[in-house]
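Name: Helix-turn-helix transcriptional regulator
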Amino acid sequence: MITSTVDVTHELAAFVRSRRERLDPQDVGLPASRRSRRTPGLRREEVAELAGISVDYIVRLEQARGLRPSADVVEALARALRLAPDERAYLFGLARQRPRDTGKLATTAAPSLARLVADLSPLPAMLMNHRYDILAWNDEMAKVLWDFGALPPSQRNAMWLCLMHPETSRLYEDRERVVREGVAHLRAAWAAHPEDQALTDLITECLSRDAEFARRWAEQDVKVNGRGHKTMRHPDIGTITVQFETLTPLQDPEQLLVIYRAADEETQTAMDGLRAR
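Structure predicted for Helix-turn-helix transcriptional regulator:
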């Protein structure tokens, strides 16, 4: 029966039980001799053994007796029950816990998203990951910002370019705001991905080499800014203002699709001329 509110205790119990009953013992490597049983799926004892928790805990959980599993227990259950990523996220949500970093960080563009970036022409578009690494871009974005293909991969990072690359650091008219928003985003990403050593290394380098970054980092601001505007002093077409939109694909939430649009008629005319070159 569906009600206006979700009873998470009973839903958690029903979900764990349903995932246990759908598993074939052979799917988890149990011997064939252990497959003769009256009920479908795994026994509670087998789930407890696979998850490294007590049988009594599984019993109480499936009986909706008010348990609130810790993040470690939820992760152990997700592994034992062979949950798909969406199911794992759902289990964490029911337990009111935050999913841990799975270690599957986006370092290359998903092929379908790379094609989408190209198909978005004539709008400038690029694909980034949580730490601002630039994974894919179209020709229009390269003309507006920088020819990323001419840079070594280690420098294809929007934050690094803004701080360390001489020409790119002079591109933004309101560089202070761009840096402030970028630092707030990186702090949020750093908390969400504590095991990402590349992100930690990037932050450490920026702290040691840029005083403004260090000052903003010390302010403890956290914000994921997915929409806004930027005014840039382009070397070929002068001052332009673009609106940007950042979208997160459902199937690849670690990849960020960034799209630029002209904020006014003058910018649109200038960008049309740049594209025609």
